[in-house]
Design brief:
Layout (H helix, E strand, L loop, with lengths): L1 H67 L2 H15 L3 H16 L3 H14 L3 H17 L3 H8 L5 H17 L3 H14 L4 H13 L4 H9 L1
Helix pairs in contact: 1-2, 1-3, 2-3, 3-4, 4-5, 5-6, 5-7, 6-7, 7-8, 8-9
């Protein structure tokens, strides 16, 4: 009986040896690949957390510079943020914050540059849209109407498209293109149905141009 068991165990051992000889290298490489990928993923997660922590600290520096009114420091901090952590949302927030401070200190060109950087490269569509709207508003102030319209004819998220249409109406009216301005304001009025306070402002602009949007809607629905 013992000899029979020894023979059975030997056969099993031989089968295992044969299996490992046939598949051992493949299994080893699969394990190496899986474990290597896991280690790389953990390393990437750690790197991301470290980058986010450093970016947050530098964002605090931008905030302090803005609060102190030290524009040179604001510009240096923003440059560091863009250089080291340009792909993070902290960098986009920093540029928007810095642009406001730069504008308040009369550095309109620097403010436009900061906003252009966000408008052209933001991964977050909300930040992108905010930057486009603020950049277009600055261009309107500078009478750069065509540049403003370029920004306002780009794609906007549904939540921001009404604001873009309203500002487009402002630019067109400033250019003396009242018919086109009315069309833009009417589009804004329709898109801003969920924000009644802002919608009333757009309606006032239309009324000033001799248009009652509610009456126009009533006529259309007949």
């Amino acid at each position: 009986m013992a000899k029979a068991l020894d023979l059975e165990e030997q056969e099993q051992l031989d089968q295992i040896k044969h299996f490992w000889k046939t598949w051992g290298n493949l299994i080893s490489w699969v394990l190496i690949t899986v474990l290597g990928s896991y280690a790389a993923w953990n390393g990437y997660q750690y790197w991301q957390q470290t980058q986010a922590t450093k970016a947050a600290a530098l964002y605090d520096e931008v905030e302090r510079a803005v609060a102190s009114g030290d524009i040179s420091r604001v510009e240096r901090s923003l440059a560091d943020m863009k250089d080291k952590f340009g792909s993070t949302q902290f960098a986009q927030q920093s540029a928007l914050l810095a642009a406001k401070a730069l504008q308040s200190q009369g550095k309109a060109e620097a403010a436009r540059d900061a906003l252009s950087w966000v408008a052209n490269g933001a991964s977050d569509k909300a930040y992108r849209d905010i930057a486009r709207l603020r950049l277009a508003a600055l261009q309107l102030d500078a009478k750069s109407y065509d540049e403003a319209l370029k920004q306002l004819t780009l794609e906007f998220t549904p939540e921001m498209s009404g604001l873009a249409a309203d500002l487009r109406g402002d630019v067109l009216q400033a250019k003396g293109q009242n018919a086109e301005a009315i069309a833009a304001y009417q589009q804004a009025w329709q898109k801003l149905a969920d924000t009644p306070d802002y919608r009333r402002l757009v309606q006032a602009k239309l009324n000033a141009l001799g248009v009652d949007p509610e009456a126009a809607v009533s006529e259309t629905s007949k």
